[in-house]
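anyone seen this seq b4? input:
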Amino acid sequence: MPPPTSALDEFLTQLDAEGRLVHVERFRARAAVHGSLDRPLPDDVWKRVGLDGLWSHQAEAINHARAGRSVVVATGTASGKSLCYQLPIAEAVADPVRSGTALLLFPTKALAHDQLRSLAEFEFPDVVPATYDGDSNPEQRTWVRNNANVVLTNPEMLHHGLLPHHGRWSTFLMRLRFVVVDELHVLRGIFGTHVAHLLRRLRRIAQRYGSDPTFIFSSATIGQPSRLAGELCGLPV
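predicted toks r here
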């Protein structure tokens, strides 16, 4: 191996010296591919992100979501998938004509809390995010229903805590603009079937209150992500 030039190279050199290195393959760096939005984001939203631009997949996904087309983003780890739904949500919440709300579903409570911290760090104007899960006490749940416009939860809590009591969520549901489903690739088999029924119930109840939310799915790279996402929500994705 060549002389080490970085911490990673030093680590690989050590593994090689110990006989534990099986194979190393290096790929040439590819030029970054940026994309543009069909229309600029509000300044109050964009300036909070602190970026010079968006990657092509981010811009494409955001364009679809803002146009009301359900979309799935299936890209590698650390590729900026979260911004694909954070930015449209922040824009919808700050809409001066009809402010929107958003419901974010994660398979675990830990992921929901991680995303809550990520979203709160931006301090988007008017965005009031909160988790609604089994760790929330009755007082916290009441506060979330009355105050939060971005609710982060999980399928189990959607089934037990939100949909059966939709009357208490009427204001939130009538303004529901986006539904985010993270970790799409785990929603297969029996679990995926359950979630598909939940999303159809959610759509039906939202329509009762006058809303027709756009779905944004996020996934690790998988084959035919749009087909899986469409079968889950019952819409073209």
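The chain is about 45% helix and 15% strand. The radius of gyration is 20 Å. kinda curious what u guys think
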